[in-house]
Amino acid sequence: MLNIKVVTWSLAIFTTLTFIFCVVFGLVTPGSIHMSVFLQQILPGFEPNSWGGFGIGLVESFLYGAYAGLVYVSVYNFLYRIWVRK
C-alpha cells in the first residue's frame, strides 16, 4: 500500500518544479517554442511575464499535483485491498 502523504507531497512538488522549469525555459528560448500558451490553457489566471500570474500558476500547479496524488493513492490502495489481500 502507498503512503498518501508521501505520494501527494511528491507529486505536488514535482508539478511545482515542472512549472518553474517551463517558465524558465520560456524565458531563455525563442518565442516559437514557448510553453506559455499551453500553460495559459491549463492554468486559469496564469499570465507570462507577470509576478501575479507566476504566483497563481505556481499555486495551481502545486494543487493539481496534490489532487493527483490524493486521487491516485486512494484508487491504488482501494484496488490493492480488493485484489492483493485476497
Topology, element by element:
Elements: H1 4-28, H2 36-42, H3 51-83
3D architecture notes:
This protein is mainly alpha-helical. It has helices spanning 4-28, 36-42, 51-83. The longest helix is centred in the last third of the chain and has 33 residues, at 51-83.
Share of helix, binned: over 70%
Average pLDDT level: 92
Q: Major sheet, described briefly?
A: none
Beta-strand percentage?
Answer: under 5%
The string of secondary-structure elements, in order, is HHH
Rg (C-alpha, Å): 16 Å
- Unreliable stretches covering 5 or more consecutive residues: none
Question: Which structural class do the helices and strands define?
Answer: mainly alpha
Number of helices: 3
Mass-distribution shape = elongated
Distance from first to last alpha carbon: 14 Å
Strand elements, count: 0
Which features would summarize this protein structure in a list?
86 residues; mainly alpha; 3 helices; 76% helix; elongated
In short:
By secondary structure, this protein is an all-alpha fold. The protein contains 3 helices and no strands.
